[in-house]
Structure prediction request, 403 residues.
Amino acid sequence: MLTADPQFRDSAVKAVHHRFRIVGAGPTGALLALGLAQQGFSVVLHDRLSAELLLNRSRAYAITHSSRRLLLDLDLWPALLDQMEPFRALRLDDCSAHCTTWFQLRDLRPANRTSEAIGWILDHRPLMRLLLERLQASDLVELQLDDALPAEDVLANAGSREWIVAADGPRSTLRRCAEVPFWTHAYQQGCLTVKLRLTGADQHCAYELFRPEGPMAVLPLGEDRYQVVWSAPLQRCRDRAASSTSELLSALDAILPDGVNAVQLLDDPGAFPLELSLAPRLHRGALLLVGEAGHRCHPVGGQGLNLCWRDVSDLLNLTQAMGHGEIAFTSLARRYSRCRRFDLAGVLLSTDLLIRFFSNHNPLLMPFRRLALFLLKRISWIRRFSLSAMTDGPGTLLRPLPK
Prediction:
């Protein structure tokens, strides 16, 4: 369990004298900076974007129970709870096999059922606003925003008691400058994201539709507002994003579940490529890779941000142990890379297999898809196992959840 106890903060600053320099002030880098400051470490947080640009992103995140626990530990959950839309059911459709499966609250592990939600949808702006407010209020955080600091300078000027953290996304300049080995595979699919108003949808349900061209997630934002994450061949996503409003709404109406209709766009659609990527080791020297600087998965199942935040959670557990003198300063990077392997491998492999299994026209796979969904629908322990992997991460399947 993380701690922000004042006595620990004082002892950490006096006894350890470590500093963390984080490049990337998005949700992952900002959350890590706040957690380190609460543990008593000095933090410098850089980003080439201004605070205004960091706030002005039109996107929403699926928050799972692993992220809920981290936000609770950092005392952010109460302030965000009114900004989030809970969903109490998850509907999974295989549109080619014509099969539907539901996940309900009873499919959660007992430790998670008290929250009365399978997950939550959180808009980017209130999250970033709260993170920046808390960071600005901390005496241990130095914010250097709107600052395009060269990666070479960051690495060259690292002190002997300083860790450098790359949280600057999938095109990380720090990772490339440090020549950290990195493997990547570009999917043929891209992704279109857009916020819109729907009629006929269950406001307390999230939808995951498996279609031959790629999966589509429909995530509730409150009232009749939804975030759509629509995977398809990249050029098709770009063409749809550039189409007229009426054309895009008609295309959505044609594939949404029966009775659900798209009536209004709430922002400009965006299209971007998808890839599977991983750094075999999340460190080199004094450099640590956190979030999408070290890995990236397909957005199916809403795993992306939660996987990044489990990086943050595991790293904070290690820095807390380091502050207490339980692990050596020199072993932090090695321990961090090692403890993240199983979770990263599990999520990247499972999301990739889901895409390969469900996003195709192969008639030979159709009986197996129907069987898989039949078993998921009929056997409760399979649903619980699957939902636990999605909401807590594969690493919790073989051990009790933290209290």
In short: Confidence is low (pLDDT under 50) at residues 4-16. Residues 332-358 form the longest helix (27 residues). Residues 223 and 248 are 21 Å apart (CA to CA). The chain has 15 helices and 18 strands.
